[in-house]
Amino acid sequence: MKLFPFLRPILEIVAAVCAIVFGLRFITSFFSRASPVYRPTFLRQFYLLFWPLLSMSVGLPFLISFLYLGPVSAYELVLLVALGAVIMGFSVPALVLHAQYYARNLHTTLVFDARQNRLEIYEGRVLIPFARRDLVRVEYVTCRSKRMFWSNYNFLRLHLTTGEVLTLTSLLTNLAPVAEFLRNSNLESRQQWFCFV
After folding, report:
1. Which residues of 143-165 are buried (b: 16+ CB within 10 A; e: fewer)?
2. Where in the chain are the domains?
3. What gap in Å lies between CA 24 and CA 43, rounded to an integer?
4. In what order do the strands lie in the sheet with 135-143?
5. What are phi and psi of 165, to 5 degrees?
6. 170 vs 67, 110, 124, 137, 195, CA distance in Å?
7. Which of 112, 109, 139 is nearest to 125 (CA)?
8. Which of 54, 105, 152, 157 could cross-link with 139 by S-S, CB 3.0 to 4.6 Å?
């Protein structure tokens, strides 16, 4: 297997970088207070992508190894296709949702502090001005299943009186407190199997 010696140094480097990042994050958390500013950060993305990427990193090398074996029997081929379907079935929807949310909220900044009654949304560095009275309705879409790799992906849509629609995704933060904050603004909660924006 020529592929494995090539992957091992890369995986070791990735593990070392992740250990350093989490170690620094853990140490600095003692000296900082919680910030009301939310952006798509590395740690938030890592939290959302951990299980899909782990599934693919464990399953795909195993599947690729069958390419080096040569001809396989029908029984092995059925098992190979079933395993590939399971790995892709669990991982691909989460990766598609993540890519969609990343494209939607890459330049979005959410400033949210319920204690100070503060909710601001910035696109780039530009503040999008609105108040609670400007909200026609708020859609909060969550995943129907709580045990899938894509269960943590959800979004809020804020429909403004101007006709503009602002979308906040779980790539920014856990949206449940924001939805609770907006519960008196015509909040409509829905559940879907896949929370495509």
Report:
1. beeeebbbebbbbbbbbbeeeee
2. 1-33, 35-197
3. 12
4. 165-169, 155-160, 135-143, 187-192
5. -120, 120
6. 38, 11, 18, 19, 10
7. 109
8. 157
How many C-beta atoms surround the C-beta of residue 170 within 10 A? Answer: 23
Q: What are phi and psi of 68, to 5 degrees?
A: -85, -10
Please name which of 168, 163, 162 lies closest in space to residue 181, comparing C-alpha atoms: 168
Work out the mean pLDDT of the chain and round it to a whole number. Answer: 86
DSSP 62-73: HHHHGGGS-S--
pLDDT bin (cut points 50, 70, 90) of residue 1 is very low
Among 185, 42, 178, 53, smallest CA distance to 120 is for: 178
Ranking 42-51, 65-74, 102-111, 174-183 by mean pLDDT, the lowest is 65-74
DSSP annotation of 132: G
Residue linked to tokens 């530009």: 126
Sign of torsion over alpha carbons 181, 152, 159, 136: negative
**pLDDT tens readout for residues 97-120:** 999 999 999 999 999 998 999 999
Between CA 158 and CA 35 the distance in angstroms is 23
CB 135 within 8 A of CB 185: yes
List residues bridging with 189 in a β-sheet. Answer: 140
Which two three-digit tokens encode residue 93? 């929807």
